[in-house]
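can u pls check wat happens w/ zinc ion
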Amino acid sequence: MEGCIFCKIVDNKIPAAKVYEDSKVIGFLDIMPANKGHCLVVPKNHAQTLAEMGDDDLCATIKAAKKVARALSLSFGNGSFNMVMNNGKEAGQIVGHAHIHLIPRFQKDRLRIKWSHLKYGENEINEYADKIKKFI
Ligand code: AMP
Ligand code: ZN
């Protein structure tokens, strides 16, 4: 994909601190980490979001994420990490090539990935479920 920074990394046109590679996926360190060791796991085929990824690429990417997460924990982590995927502008996606963030967590780190909780009105939760189910 022309102009895509992660496609350029996949094609070795720009450098990255790679930690993982197979025929379908690469993993490398995020250059502006939320915590040091923050990795990105990226399908080699360009797709914008999770919903646009082919099932084979998705399976390979999630398997690679597990390997990288394990390596992160064994190398200098402690088994705690957040796995985050931003899909779409409103969700904070900046790079338009699907990717999974793996962010190691440490005691007293200053990262906050928590949200405030809303409440559903009466039966509203079931209305939401019904609307979503129609598109499954
Ligand atoms: P997102 O907001 O989910 O699209 O996150 C994109 C991430 O890609 C950000 O955390 C950036 O720091 C990271 N990033 C952007 N360019 C590069 C690059 N050349 N090498 C490594 N990470 C990058
Ligand atoms: Zn791309």
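Residues 5-133 form a domain with the HIT family, subunit A fold (CATH 3.30.428.10).
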